[in-house]
Design goal:
By secondary structure, this protein is mainly α. It has a domain at 30-95. The chain is built from 3 helices and no strands. The chain has helices spanning 30-42, 51-69, 76-95. Helix 1 (30-42) packs parallel to helix 3 and helix 2 runs antiparallel to helix 3. The longest helix has 20 residues, at 76-95. The protein is elongated. The termini are far apart.
């Protein structure tokens, strides 16, 4: 697995304050993970500082999902980065409450 910002490696601890996260190899496909993220990003309150960012990430993830489902070649680094950003936006939006 490629290294991703804020994470040392698979199973590595994040350097983010406020919590420890672990990346694990998982049998879940990128498409399934994106389908899991999309409705959660959509539910971020429009009053949230993070709503605008969530909208952009959702757009990127929808485009990636369409490419995956269409059998097109998708840059795996872009997929992983957008998924990670989606989770970070969810985390930050949840921290507001």
């Amino acid at each position: 697995m490629d290294r991703v910002a804020d994470f040392e490696s698979v199973g590595g601890r994040s350097s983010r304050p406020g919590g420890t996260f672990f990346l694990m190899e998982s049998p879940i496909s990128d498409g399934k993970l994106i389908r899991l993220l999309l409705p959660r990003l959509e539910r971020i309150s429009v009053d949230s500082y993070w709503a605008h960012r969530a909208s952009g990430v959702r757009g990127a993830l929808v485009k990636i999902l369409e490419q995956l489902e269409g059998g097109e070649t998708v840059d795996p680094t872009s997929v992983r980065n957008n998924i990670q950003i989606g989770f970070e936006v969810l985390q930050e939006a949840a921290a507001e409450y």
